[in-house]
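Thread title: Can someone regenerate the structure for this chain?

I was given the following input by a collaborator and told the matching structure tokens would be attached. They weren't. Posting the sequence so someone can regenerate them.
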Amino acid sequence: EGKGKKRNPLHDFKKTGELMLIKVNKTLEVKTKLLNTTEQCAKRCSRSKGLSFTCKAFAYDRVTKRCHWLSFNSLTNGVRKKQDHAFDLYEKKDYVRNCIIGKGADYKGTISVTKSGIQCQAWNSMIPHEH
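Best answer:
Regenerated them for you:
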């Protein structure tokens, strides 16, 4: 950013080495393609370019140099983790972080209760509090 430097697209992803996600739920989507670098995979996932779904993660096969874009991540129901030495898993931080940054407008995590255990108010609801 600035002065001609390009931002590394991998900064938006959390890397877990030697892990692959296996979909148990058959409706979840995956698309694969040969690509030389994880940066290329990350860039395409961030833009969801050429994908019929919102990319939430990708797994990169270091042996075959094949990128597997995923419509799910490790927190999605119907998915299981599998140790695999050929793969590195990259999950979009927006979908796996469980904290709110700023006002939370971009929050996509899974937390839906307060620290004290009270169910959170839906964003589209004005009850019990107005925004």
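The chain is about 10% helix and 30% strand.
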